Amino acid sequence: MNTQARTFRKLRVMQSHNALRQLLATNPVRILTILGTSLFLASFVFGLSYFGFHELEDNRVPFKGLIVSGLFDVLFLTLGSMLLLSTGIILYASLFTSPETRYLLTTPATADRIFASKFQAAIAFSSWGFVVLGLPILFAYGIVAAVPWYFYPLLPIFLMGFVLLPGAVSSLACLVLMRCLPRNRKQSLMLLGAVVGLLFGYWLYRTGVSAKTALTSAGGRDALQGFVDRFALASSPLSPSHWMTNGLLAAARGELRESVRYLALLWSNGLLVYLLAAFVSARIYRKAYDRVSDGVRRKRAYGGTGLDRIMESLVFYLSKPTRVLVVKDFRTFRRDPSQWAILVIFAGLLAVGAGNFNSYYTADLDTIDKYIVGLVNLSGSAVLLCAGLSRFIFPLISLEGRKFWILGLMPIERRQILLGKFAFAATGSVLVGWLLVIGSELILGLSLDGLVIHAISITAIAIGLSGLNVGLGAYLPNFRETDPSKIVVGFSGTVNMVLGLLFLVLTLGVMAGPMHAAAVMKHFAKNLEPGFPVWAYAGLPVGVLMAVIATVLPLRAGRRALETTEF
């Protein structure tokens, strides 16, 4: 057992060393780009967090009291839930669909050792963003709150301890589900997801009702307490998010012994659940793998469904061979649980947004309030499109991998392959964007001018982000990796996400910003006349031009890179 552990450890070190040496030898600019983008992102988060905490200080909110404690509780509960889902999905792909795992199972390596190796990789890939983004927030809090010096070295230890627990829980759940689900696991997972979605939707509905009551009631103390009670799980003494909050706040207050006690609580429970998952993996992992593989082998010949025909009809303007490629990408997406399970996460985020806006839709809002809520809705929908396209569309070229030569045998050019992926991304994202923005704002009762500007904005953002993701995916591919989650969090995926967010912010500011500035000016000037001045629409052609540039240039660079690549 110790020999196997040393072998796997040596293998990880060698792989990391070789990858870094190859990167430095072939393209050192990538290292500088990684460092630059990480520094930019961390600086932006730090600046935003510092501003927020400084505002709390100006309003005399105690930094080490119940209000900040409640904020941290909800923050860590939300991040922990996302870690729970993302780690489980990555681990499923690593343990049950990876060719490397299939090879390792033929070696004398034990099941629990294979599980441990894949678990460590899954934790690293699912949580590095949480650690990188969490540190600037907590550093900003420490500076504004004037915490003791040992608060800062304790931060990464707390974050890594917190990451371990949801990762271990999700890995245990993944193993048990794959072992115990019926043969038709796809239908079982869909049923389970539907039940969880209904329960989550009911919770959102009750939370929205509580929020509306708390905001509108005259004697709102009891109503506000009822709303806060909806998040009582985050503040439960048994919640890891509460242990995290209490430990950090204890360190901020100078109570080192109390802080270390909560740190030990996090690590001990995380390691205990990890050992339990390793114990279970030694007994059921191979059986679970055989069960999943047997289900794949027995899959009947598949001729497509109505969903495939709908997808093909949506891209009717393409040639027949290109439409076949679009349907192929769509079919691959919906067949892979590691892909559509992520979609459930984004659907949950959309449900959270809908639940929050529900109380506003049913309220009697002033015109300026409708524009504010509409701008928030547009921005949130654009961010979700950016995240979804980065997760689903960017890895498409890389996932073709070593099988790309099969596409080369088809009677189509490589630029048509790229065009098909762009059409798939743009068509889907535009439809989703219209559904989120136009549907929500029709309910909200936004003016026709605002509705048209927001519709044009979300269309430009969706098309521009589609071109950016497809083009950069072809320009910076990773043909050696088969796990889309690892491609997204790698170097090229990070660059793509940062550029996508930058494009999103600039486009929103140019296209929607002038109209909302005009709405604010009309509100304070008591101007009740309908319509806006001409300059409120001046940003629309500029935003459309930015979308064209964000589409054409990356696609052109991706086409050149793809045509010169040997497979």
Give a structural overview.
The structure is a single chain. The chain has helices at residues 2-26, 28-58, 66-96, 99-104, 111-145, 151-180, 185-216, 221-229, 240-252, 256-297, 306-314, 320-335, 337-361, 367-392, 396-400, 404-408, 414-444, 448-475, 484-488, 491-511, 513-524, 539-563. The chain is an all-alpha fold and 567 residues long. The protein is 81% helix and 0% strand. The chain is globular and about 75 Å long. Mean pLDDT is 75; it is low at 358-365.
Q: Give the count of helical stretches.
A: 22
Average pLDDT rating: 75
Q: Order of helices and strands, N to C?
A: HHHHHHHHHHHHHHHHHHHHHH
Approximate strand percentage: under 5%
Provide the structure class.
mainly alpha
Considering DSSP H and I runs of 4 or more, what fraction of the residues is helical? over 70%
Cα separation of the termini: 39 Å
Low-confidence stretches: 358-365
Largest sheet: none
Q: What value does the Rg take, in angstroms?
A: 25 Å
- Give the number of DSSP strands: 0
CA-based shape: globular
Task: List the topology elements.
Layout lengths: L1 H25 L1 H31 L7 H31 L2 H6 L6 H35 L5 H30 L4 H32 L4 H9 L10 H13 L3 H42 L8 H9 L5 H16 L1 H25 L5 H26 L3 H5 L3 H5 L5 H31 L3 H28 L8 H5 L2 H21 L1 H12 L14 H25 L4
Helix pairs in contact: 1-2, 2-5, 2-20, 3-5, 3-6, 3-9, 3-13, 5-6, 5-10, 6-9, 6-10, 7-8, 7-13, 9-10, 11-12, 12-17, 13-14, 14-17, 14-18, 14-20, 14-21, 17-18, 17-22, 18-20, 18-22, 20-22
